Amino acid sequence: MRVAICQLNSLIGDIEGNKERILNGYKKGVQDGADLVICPELSLVGYPPQDLVEKVEFRQKVKECTEEIASLTGETGLIFGTITEEYDDVGTDIYNSTVLCYNGKIQTVQNKTLLPNYDVFDEVRYFESAKECKIHEFKGEKLGLSVCEDIWNDVDYWKKRRYVNDPVHKQIALGATLLINISASPYAHGKREQRREMLSVLTKKDNIPLVYACCAGVQTDLIFDGGSMCFDSKGNLCMLGKTYAEDYFIFDTKKEYEPIKKVESSFEEEALQALIFGVREYCSKTRFKEALIGLSGGIDSAIVTYIAVKALGKENVHVVMMPSEFSSKGSVDDSVMLIKNLGVTSDKVPIQPVFECVKNVLEPVFDGRPEDVTEENIQSRIRGLYLMSISNKFGYILLTTGNKSEMGVGYATMYGDMCGALAVIADVYKTDIYKIAHFINRDSEIIPKEIIEKAPSAELRPNQTDQDSLPPYDFLDKILKMYLEENKEFNQIVKELGKPDVVKRVLNLVDFNEFKRKQAAPALRISTKAFGYGRRYPIVQGWRRR
Amino acid sequence: MRVAICQLNSLIGDIEGNKERILNGYKKGVQDGADLVICPELSLVGYPPQDLVEKVEFRQKVKECTEEIASLTGETGLIFGTITEEYDDVGTDIYNSTVLCYNGKIQTVQNKTLLPNYDVFDEVRYFESAKECKIHEFKGEKLGLSVCEDIWNDVDYWKKRRYVNDPVHKQIALGATLLINISASPYAHGKREQRREMLSVLTKKDNIPLVYACCAGVQTDLIFDGGSMCFDSKGNLCMLGKTYAEDYFIFDTKKEYEPIKKVESSFEEEALQALIFGVREYCSKTRFKEALIGLSGGIDSAIVTYIAVKALGKENVHVVMMPSEFSSKGSVDDSVMLIKNLGVTSDKVPIQPVFECVKNVLEPVFDGRPEDVTEENIQSRIRGLYLMSISNKFGYILLTTGNKSEMGVGYATMYGDMCGALAVIADVYKTDIYKIAHFINRDSEIIPKEIIEKAPSAELRPNQTDQDSLPPYDFLDKILKMYLEENKEFNQIVKELGKPDVVKRVLNLVDFNEFKRKQAAPALRISTKAFGYGRRYPIVQGWRRR
After folding, report:
1. How confident is the model at residue B459 (pLDDT cuts 50, 70, 90)?
2. Which of A123, A130, A398, A484 could form a disulfide with A420 if both were Cys (CB 3.0 to 4.6 A apart)?
């Protein structure tokens, strides 16, 4: 069987547009003589559609377009992801479905059985679980259709399974000869290798070929990295879709393929690609052509500027230097060097005049109280005010430059450096930012070495460095990774790292600063546990408060 | 049987503190000769604990404290809500449980069967559903223990049920003689009457008495309004706990009670009570004693100031007037009158000097471009900057004054008037704000009538009124209520209200401005569908984009 895989980039809610994307893929497949064309999970809807699913008119439109697509099919089969409804007297009646269409009709609907409801996933909120699990004969193959999570519950592969059911093995028991899993699986570091390994083990164990068709695109903060895969019945990876791009390719189940070898890519390379794709796609889908970044002379804003240039082109990236009286001469010089290296346009606007003016106006209110963190925040907020003003005036999207370490401990000013529409590196630890900088500079110096080598500083008071207020970043990041990613707690972290006072302080900072993160810009997600939608903590709580 | 109901106000995560709250209630019950003392759902943990549940050390602490509490019980029974774990080879192994303890031991554990996973609820994310449903004999009664949602699935009461199971009717079938439902049910307008009616219908139909013990308190944006209830087997409400306060009372299942009559309270009265409680509790749990509000001369900030005064006392409320060159003399005069009426302290800080200074600094960047909405935003952001500076300097909590109508259509400036830690009225439509103002003034003029009568205006350009940019609020609010609360869509709304162009514009504004709401302060929830945690839309989407 010749199977065409369409690795689509749907826009959530753009049912008409997504319909065209699916139909274009189908036409291409028909022209290429495919027997079957496959599009990803919820490709007609975009993933995750969130509460849009709860709207009757939305589902009505999805139903109409599903039927319209089906009506346009001929002998070539078409599989795509959509929402279907089945009424009974309990529950939402709504399903996350894969439909197989040919000869002008929906021939079979296989609903998703396993509904992920952890981290960034909320599918139980919307969908019912499939009531039955079947196979479908088509052109000599017995197809086992499934949706994403359905294939992530193999009793042998997982030490601890999430679900009782294993729909895919039910299909294998029913005599399936070809597994087709349509998917929407967001990128996190390590996920790509895990997908490949898990699917390879499964196809080999069960001696059955598999087509895994997933989407590529960015939905607000989630990066869907593509990489659709086709396995033969020996667990060999025969075909592999592009990463970070739409793709289309044909897999012939009867053909012998040279197994595709594993290519190791470093964390730095992967993260950088993901973030560039994230910025490009976010801007494209929100129709921003040009971006704005506040350049401090530090490494974070330098990396974000580099990413923006790669994503949007240097002519579309504008930076603003906003030195304070506490900025070192180096900061401006280093920024100027970076601007030259990257070829972006720049402005320089001093914050001192407005800072003085604000202090004068507030003097009667402050009534002789000594300067404190308030004045540091004022400077940061004046920068935010400038950036937002330029963003508003020129229609540039403002990119935020805070990293995960800072956002973790709340080393950021609300309505100041936290201003912006998209937080580009808020899921990247400071120590990883350095790794990325070295990777960028692997052939030639693009990020000036002065920027990489200087001690990180907010430059909001004389001779300030981050390490005045925070533990060294390599130690801080160890604590944060254990706390955030590995869900370890105080006792366990201290057992491994020692320094109970520092650990306690860091964990309390993370917990206390939840209120800042609740008002933060959405952050491109590249780890298994990012701040934002997939991490849900109460702002007001008393766990471990001392 | 004499049952003591402890309507507790737990703090999420404060396991030790909550343990004391439960034990204090138990001691009181023992002193009063109660047979059984009942505390609310997850009273040891606080509700909703969110991702804290995923931490091993957290659950370990909960387990220790659960056992400690049990070990301190004597002949008097104690029922409270906690987390328990039961290991098997699938799922999270974690349960939302009610435990019955006496004679120094946990005597029975009844796990929650029905796990709400809609709107603000995410329980499937954390908990497994109970594997069995039983009754427990205690002092001559057969107790049917259940947790919150368990009792919300009666086949006769609901036209459409959410769940297949009905654990409470299973217990009735097993011979239960007394139902005990422990609960944590957040307030929304109409919810209180619904609870009472549903439980009354159920107890009457099944001819069985019921104790419904719920919590009272505020968890970030969720207001738990109290009002625990005891019904006899005829469906009569025999006892009713306080609203918006902790409470403790004893119900004797053998005694005859005079049925408590329904007391109608207006939306305005209820909403005002809820919001005052919300501000008081939020500040108490975050340890803020004093609050700060920017006073514009408009009705929103006036109402928020009134609420803050009622919540914290006039001596703890500070307001700042920040007139612009476009502010009417009336605005300042009206504010001064309000300040006098409420007795709060005030400051007046002009924004003009800083506005001029910012414009000067940005002049080279703006390069002769005409003034536009940028300059309006700059003024709003200077106000935000002042307020945050005063908040930082004095340690006041900044309260945000935007209403639901504005937040709906994005008529608000990010990092400007949206600055603040808690959005007090962001779940109240503008038309309802007026109703609340009239209710406040029912006996004497507290909110100056000039403030109520003037046309709403941001006063950011000459002679500006809200209605230049928005449809009249009574029409806007009708559209918004249908769209947000009733989940109606374009066609349906136009069918009922007409004006397709206006409806289209409003719906597009709501959808488009999701990015602003994602960075908004948490908003006290008083409706069935508030912005925030319970309403989840993608920022980037193409539904109905034209």
Report:
1. confident
2. A398
Q: Are A522 and A535 in contact (CB under 8 A)?
A: no
Chain A CB contacts of B490 under 8 Å are 57
Nearest residue of chain A to residue B357 (CA atoms): A354
What are the pLDDT digits (tens) for B149-175? 999 999 999 989 999 999 999 999 999
Extract the tokens encoding A100. Answer: 């197989």
Q: Among residues of chain A, what percentage have pLDDT more than 90?
A: 94
Q: What is the mean pLDDT of residues A474-490?
A: 96
Tell me, what's the pLDDT at A197?
Answer: 96
Task: For B8-50, give the DSSP string.
Answer: ----TT-HHHHHHHHHHHHHHHHHTT-SEEE--TTTTT-S--G
Angle between helix B373-394 and B352-366 (nearest 10): 130
Query: With an 8 Å Cβ cutoff, is A395 touching chain B?
Result: no
Interface subset of B 68-107, CB within 8 angstroms of A: 89-91
Sheet bearing A247-252, strands edge to edge: A105-111, A94-102, A77-85, A36-38, A2-7, A247-252
Structure tokens given for A84: 């279907």
The ipTM assigned to this model is 0.96
Reading the block at residue B173, the tokens are 């079938």
- Sorted by sequence, the CB contacts under 8 Å of residue B140 that are 6+ apart come out as B1
DSSP A35: S
- Superfamily of domain A2-260 in CATH is Carbon-nitrogen hydrolase (3.60.110.10)
Question: pLDDT per residue over B340-351, tens digit each?
Answer: 999 999 999 999
Sign of the Cα pseudo-torsion (B486, B488, B492, B498, in order): positive
Domain ranges of chain B: 2-260, 269-518
Quote the minimal CA–CA distance from A284 to chain B in Å.
10
Residues 269-288 of chain A whose Cβ lies under 8 A from any Cβ of chain B: 282, 285-286
Question: Which residues of chain B does A513 touch, with a Cβ-Cβ cutoff of 8 Å?
Answer: none
Distances, alpha carbon B403 to alpha carbons A113, B283, B369, B471, in Å = 41, 20, 32, 15
pLDDT in tens, A181-191: 999 999 999 99
- pLDDT computed for residue B546 by the predictor: 57
Query: Which CATH number is correct for A271-464, 3.40.50.620, 3.40.50.720, 3.40.1260.10, 2.40.10.120?
Result: 3.40.50.620
Which is nearest to B338 in space by CA: B369, B298, B393, B390? B298
Q: What is the pLDDT of residue A458?
A: 80
Tell me the shortest Cα–Cα distance from A227 to chain B, in angstroms: 23
| B349 contacts A361? CB cut-off 8 A | yes
Range 445-484 of A in CB contact (< 8 A) with B: none
Q: State the alpha helices, DSSP H only, in A367-480.
A: 373-394, 404-409, 430-440, 449-453, 466-469, 473-480
Active-site entry in B39, B41, B133, B459: B41
Q: Is the backbone peptide bond immediately before A48 cis, with ω within 30 degrees of 0?
A: yes
Residues of A annotated as catalytic are 41, 112, 148
CB B319 within 8 A of CB B344: yes
Q: Between chains, do A541 and B52 touch, taking CB under 8 Å as contact?
A: yes
Residue A282 and residue A287: Cα distance in Å, rounded? 8
Interchain contact, B536 vs A164, CB within 8 Å: no
Continuous segment of H or E residues that includes residue B211 = strand B210-214
The answer to whether A297 and A328 have CB atoms below 8 angstroms apart is yes
Say which CATH topology domain B269-518 has.
Answer: Rossmann fold (3.40.50)
Mean pLDDT of chain A: 96
Alpha helices in B410-472 (DSSP H): 430-440, 449-453, 466-469
> Which residue is closest to A153 within chain B, CA to CA?
B90
Mean pLDDT of chain B: 96
pLDDT in tens, B275-305: 999 999 999 999 999 999 999 999 999 999 9
Residue B163, SS3 per DSSP: coil
